[in-house]
What does this fold into?
Amino acid sequence: MRETSLFAPNEVHVGQDVGGRTFSIIRDAIERYRNGTSSMVDTQGFTPALVFHSEVYRNLTWYLPNLIGNLHARQEWELFHSLHAGQVVTSRTTVVDRYRKRNREYVVAEVVIADERGRWLQRSRTHQSFLADDPGDAMVVDRDREKRSGPPLRAARRRRRGHRALAAPDHARDCARRSRARARTTTPTRRWRARSDFPTSSCRG
It folds into this structure.
């Protein structure tokens, strides 16, 4: 029975097997990494953990077709066991996620490096973003629109300042009334407020 796919030909999808390779960790790869990072740290026979940081880019069939404007968004690692020079390892790349943020689509490719027994040595995930074919619901405001909205915004601020200026006299009259009311307070009441620590109110402009 012929198997049918739920995805169109060449469509990047979650679960897509991008392939891999089996190789030996050679000294040249280690030295290239050390020279590129200017790292002269003595690793005592161990291989730098991120020496194969670009393994995910050996095969780009997990990329979306729109290459213009694509960005490297994030890369993360989980390190389980150390690597050694001369060790034979196998890498495998799989698409594990696709998601969208605003006007960009993201593809997440996972690379697992394992030893000859199949034991995982490390796992990395790379998030690559691409411009979406359709803008979706994203709202973009260009510079011209920002400039056009400048004068009305300034006018609104002037109106708010004018409103505060008109409200100031009313505020002053209220303060004056409260001050006269406090002046009429009898002396016993003042003494009672002092004994009970009653907070005295103040009026500030």
